[in-house]
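U., I forgot to send this yesterday:
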Amino acid sequence: MPRHRQHVNPLKMSYFARAAEPLALPPGREVEVELGCADAQFLFQRAAAEPGRAYVGLEIREDLAVEVAARARRLKAPIQVVFCHANLDYAQLFAPRSVARVFVNFPDPWFKRRHRKRRVVDAALAGDIAASLVPGGELFFQSDVWEVALDALAVLEAEPRFTNRAGAWSFWKRGNPYGATSRREDGCAEERAPVWRLLYVSEARAPGSGAA
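Result:
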């Protein structure tokens, strides 16, 4: 696979000028979405294990999205790859209660303090994801950067439609339960580097409301 830019500035004005359209998803299939899918290794492994589901990869690098979409068509894999900005476009792409699982695998860390506003998991995106999930739908997050994982934990704990499967303010300690890995996760395993994981379940209630 050709080399692609590793990082893209998500605050470029060109992303704000685009308008996403709702995705056409196959009826009767569970839908799984990966944010920042890169080469979509994770989704291809998921699709190989569970071909009866529909998979959507969101990718901000247009050339990479086009390349991976072409590979999915060539392999006849049930995967759509969409060039988009997840923070801006997610709510337009997916109807309420239409997604079974969302995966955020090793998002860009943006270490510098002035760049932290570029991190993908923020309150608005958490709300959009919560709205898109079916009752009992899952959000799974992984990072090998402690500060990024801690930021994501704080954001997701504040979203009232999510319940933390590991308990409030706790990381998921049972490993990756989905039988698929991204290239970054493979690298962490080879290096024996720690990975911090979060697993949330949608309670399907409106923000600020009580129990469903």
